Amino acid sequence: MIVRIMGEGQVRLADAALTELNELDNELLAAVEAGDEEGFRRTLGALLDSVRRLGEPLPDDALAPSELILPTADATLDEVRAMLKDDGLIPG
Question: 58 burial class (0-12, 13-18, 19+ CB within 10 angstroms)?
């Protein structure tokens, strides 16, 4: 799976990484729904850190379509709320 972090670039993630990312995505969804700014900020940071840690960065000149787009680390709660689907940012 190719994931783009807005403003940073793309990484290739193995499907096995989705379990960990979905757990963080569920926490992020709960924080957004509760309006919990502190929990939102902490969980968004953890989600992005996990993508960076588990993923393999693609070269800047790579032209691969992103299957998933994640917000920047400094995105607001409202910006992320607008990006959320029924099951969060990450399908599954």
Answer: middle
